[in-house]
Amino acid sequence: MDLGRREIEEIDEELGRKDRAEEGQDEVGLSPGSQLFLEPGTNCCIIAVIGCKTNIDPAIVKEGLKQTLVHHPRFSSKLQI
Question: Which Gene Ontology molecular function entries are recorded, alphabetically (predicted)?
């Protein structure tokens, strides 16, 4: 069975809906901006710069992101943290 890109995206979307339903999450529609960022072929990177008065330990920041932001239902990343 040879599936095209659109069919694969539809299957992924349906599986995502089932996963959210099983987890008891309400499905909330995406804003137009969010929809644009999720379009195939949109290459957009959001880079954040934060200033601190004291030095920070990057390992602690990465661990904090792994425990919080990465588990947010609308967060997605192709980069490894």
Answer: acyltransferase activity
